[in-house]
Amino acid sequence: MGKRLNEEKRLKVVKEAMAGVKVGVLARMYDIHPETVRGWIRDHRDSIPPEEIPAADEHVQELQRLQEVEQRYQKAVKVLGEKELEIEILRELLKKKNPAYLKDLK
């Protein structure tokens, strides 16, 4: 962090943000704090005409795809953690000599 970007690069970051790239992704990509990016957006949002905002080109589409993959990965990690917890609980039940669930069956 603490990297300084010239005005041209700041405008590029703002344009990418206005094109739909998330602030967090831009911050990681340019190694700057997300709040810095948000400040630049506030400062430059009105000075950029709509025709200068890039369309969803390959770079922006790739970043959006990366965001979707990261979200799916986080969801998969969460589900995996839940399944591992369930397996551990079932293993503990199998170790018991008189599990509680067998008492209900009698």
Automatic annotation (TrEMBL):
InterPro entries: Homeodomain-like_sf, InsJ-like_HTH. Signal peptide: none annotated. It comes from the Bacteria. Residues 56-86 form a coiled coil. Keywords: Coiled coil. SUPFAM superfamilies: Homeodomain-like (SSF46689). The keyword Metal-binding does not apply. Residues 9-43 form the Insertion element IS150 protein InsJ-like helix-turn-helix domain. This is Transposase.
